[in-house]
Amino acid sequence: MKVLRAVIPGRFQPFHKGHLQLVKWTLERVNEAIIVIGSAQESHTLQNPMTAGERILAIRKGLECEGVDLKRIYLIPVPDILMNSAWVAHVKTYVPPFQYVVSRNPLVKILFEEAGYSILEPPPFDREKYVATNIRLMMIKGEEWKNYIPRCTAEVIEELKIPHRLKKLMERD
Amino acid sequence: MKVLRAVIPGRFQPFHKGHLQLVKWTLERVNEAIIVIGSAQESHTLQNPMTAGERILAIRKGLECEGVDLKRIYLIPVPDILMNSAWVAHVKTYVPPFQYVVSRNPLVKILFEEAGYSILEPPPFDREKYVATNIRLMMIKGEEWKNYIPRCTAEVIEELKIPHRLKKLMERD
Amino acid sequence: MKVLRAVIPGRFQPFHKGHLQLVKWTLERVNEAIIVIGSAQESHTLQNPMTAGERILAIRKGLECEGVDLKRIYLIPVPDILMNSAWVAHVKTYVPPFQYVVSRNPLVKILFEEAGYSILEPPPFDREKYVATNIRLMMIKGEEWKNYIPRCTAEVIEELKIPHRLKKLMERD
Amino acid sequence: MKVLRAVIPGRFQPFHKGHLQLVKWTLERVNEAIIVIGSAQESHTLQNPMTAGERILAIRKGLECEGVDLKRIYLIPVPDILMNSAWVAHVKTYVPPFQYVVSRNPLVKILFEEAGYSILEPPPFDREKYVATNIRLMMIKGEEWKNYIPRCTAEVIEELKIPHRLKKLMERD
Amino acid sequence: MKVLRAVIPGRFQPFHKGHLQLVKWTLERVNEAIIVIGSAQESHTLQNPMTAGERILAIRKGLECEGVDLKRIYLIPVPDILMNSAWVAHVKTYVPPFQYVVSRNPLVKILFEEAGYSILEPPPFDREKYVATNIRLMMIKGEEWKNYIPRCTAEVIEELKIPHRLKKLMERD
Amino acid sequence: MKVLRAVIPGRFQPFHKGHLQLVKWTLERVNEAIIVIGSAQESHTLQNPMTAGERILAIRKGLECEGVDLKRIYLIPVPDILMNSAWVAHVKTYVPPFQYVVSRNPLVKILFEEAGYSILEPPPFDREKYVATNIRLMMIKGEEWKNYIPRCTAEVIEELKIPHRLKKLMERD
């Protein structure tokens, strides 16, 4: 039987418990999930503090601790391309063959639909609670950001000193 | 204890038994190996027939069948940057923190050395026998290329019809 | 006698009746008009919904129905270049030799003037009425956008389902 | 009835009588032909002497004199993208919707086939006789290049002084 | 003895008396100052009116008139790179070997610190008074911008007609 | 009186005594010479071993020792642009206003001529003797390369260990 794969695109700045639910939900529907780490070239900004490599490490350790089978997961960084209409082809180049895309984002959905892919639209998964922008703000303010993030992901983020980086980026010059 | 990681850069067009030996040799020396799939943007040429995503799939299935612990492996595509002196920083962006580079390539060694990394120089591993250029030629001529490639990598390559793609690229217009 | 040509730069998202007047006005002054479709790499956003190819089709069919002689028209897509001071040279590369630029845009005028071209500054042509941003908004709201657009351009836009694309891009994720 | 369109990709350095036959052959099979002027960013080299804009002018005037109906022709410059697997999506962005590709080039055929397009493979049309490389050489040597090129295309090329440019590029420094 | 060098990154739109103090302060601490003219590709906008070459000329003539020893100064334009984590390596490519970075900018400091450089943090030097944004506004309004700028820098800026360029960019289309 | 400036484009891999003669020859004809260090993004190859910053340092120290007045010299790195027809505009962005170009290179001459600049064609200056390619070869072979290079340029090149870098790049992997 053919292996079914779904792409999960995101920036994962940072990977949080909502994302974790999304990955688990996807693995109930396909054989393998391809987590596409978008805007891979970005880092060291308030919007995108982590490098692609740091995000890969944080996601992987998080998934592993939560018992997700890493053999069913691909973690693939994809840099931005400044041409929406070629973005799907660009993503396709970087990842193994796939049939589905998991996303609620209108642009992602329209681009993959026009390219002939099926969309797996997931439920919103407490999206008021798990919001990456808010979590980055909590890091800056020194609030309890770790509650919103898988335990081992949080450990990696601390070890990499991402909250410290965010605080420094907030300083006035 | 700190996790030791080594980067193994290559184009892997295709991943062959020499590469497999290299990965095993590396895993005897560090905790985790980061296979950097270089020239990730290239595909559909005689030199670089496979896309980055196809190479990821082929390497991963090959490693898995050979009993390599995938939890100790990162497979990360990195596109070319047209500036040698920024290449190490570029690779660093895409991968988790690492201490070593596994390579015999003079340019790779000089660039990582100047950036302060330690080089792990592997033995040549039958390099007269396992040569990607020759393997691609065998694919074109219909010769026994599968002997030179890990079994499950070869299966993926067949399923993806890479020899067929190479043959078509060789046709006269 | 030397053929006189004028460049008309714009994004044409979408081409409207104000643009049509501009083209006709230009053809009264030169032999051939070169419509430069700028930001050619952009599409699938609220600001730039149409691809360059879709814009070419929509403009051409619009001009044809309105009786404009296509033999006197060039429709040429030009992608952005991230360097204002090289933009004129960039445009020159993509288009046949020309002597004039038709524009009221301050940046366009300053760049072409510094490069030694003559500016043909057109009258404003009901510019309160024909505003591309408003027309895109009407498409989203389902209002009477077709009144503002040449008839056959509107037909192409409907056939390409651009209003539908815009509505989808407006959805919440 | 749906309008049938075919893409004819080439560099057209320069457009010759073989290309003219190709366009005519295409117009017998579809309603509209889209001539894609590839490597649009290239010029002023021995391989690619003409700019995209110069090529557009030369092709258009050539077609017009030969009685080809310009209303059925699109002339669209497309710059190179350094990623074969995204090239078809890139071309699609720049051109109106199409169903066919006219080409004998193996890479072009494989890329469009993988993207789901039908290939119209034309006959070779005296390809020993009409070879762009040879025609450029004749220009350099001052030989009878005009026999190989549509009459009005040749006139444009002379007016643009392309043979002179080629000769200057051949000078020793 | 080893030559000590410090990099001073900025956009210098325009170079003002605060910048001049910064250069002098730096020359009291190292042998040679490398003025890195960032966003070198930008020009002809309200934020970045001057080209890199114009900025080089304006800074150099300003420093010379103020008695700064040009033999101790490097003026080097560096275009943007869209990858923060590779920016330091990018800057290193363009400039002679250096040990220090002179900056109060949080992003600049964090990036150079992570790359192992020492930061020389200068005092704020009347930064309420010398603000490039305000000086550009004064140019637009025709106010007394010359008081804020080294005398010969101001002369170059006038000769290059930068205030005129800014005013034209502010016009309505 | 207007300041006369001439651009001297080159790669300067490395700067040799022929280049020195060229600079002196230029300074007899104009007020200021702008040395454009082309292919600025290149380094660490056999063709282009030095970074732009290393070349700037080597040229400057060489000129200074030879008594050239640095106040009349600009040393400006310019990265490649992949579009010949926009190259002159690209160079113009990076350098102060100029009237002349000093070059014997056919492509450089044709591009600047088409852009309306005057060419100052220098004599060949022992060009059989001073050939950058040969000098790099001498560095690799350990031969007497220093005879061909201004004394202080040679000192910088030694301090930067460029011959060592070249030798390492020549090693077999």
From TrEMBL, chains A, B, C, D, E, F:
* Superkingdom assignment: Archaea
The UniProt entry's coiled-coil ranges are: none
Which top-level enzyme class is recorded in the Swiss-Prot or TrEMBL entry? transferase
Domain Cytidyltransferase-like: from-to ranges: 8-136
Q: Using the UniProt record, give the first listed, main subcellular location.
A: cytoplasm
* Keyword Isomerase among UniProt keywords: no
In which pathway does this enzyme or protein participate?
Answer: Cofactor biosynthesis; NAD(+) biosynthesis; NAD(+) from nicotinamide D-ribonucleotide: step 1/1
Q: Name one GO biological process term.
A: NAD+ biosynthetic process
One Gene Ontology term of the molecular function aspect:
nicotinamide-nucleotide adenylyltransferase activity
**Keyword tags:** ATP-binding, Cytoplasm, NAD, Nucleotide-binding, Nucleotidyltransferase, Pyridine nucleotide biosynthesis, Transferase
Is the keyword ATP-binding assigned to this protein? yes
The record's comment on protein family reads:
Belongs to the archaeal NMN adenylyltransferase family.
Q: Sorted alphabetically, which HAMAP family does this protein's record hold?
A: NMN_adenylyltr
PANTHER family of this UniProt entry? BIFUNCTIONAL NMN ADENYLYLTRANSFERASE_NUDIX HYDROLASE, PHOSPHOPANTETHEINE ADENYLYLTRANSFERASE
Q: Which NCBIfam families match?
A: arch_NMN_Atrans, cyt_tran_rel, PRK01153.1
* Protein name according to UniProt: Nicotinamide-nucleotide adenylyltransferase
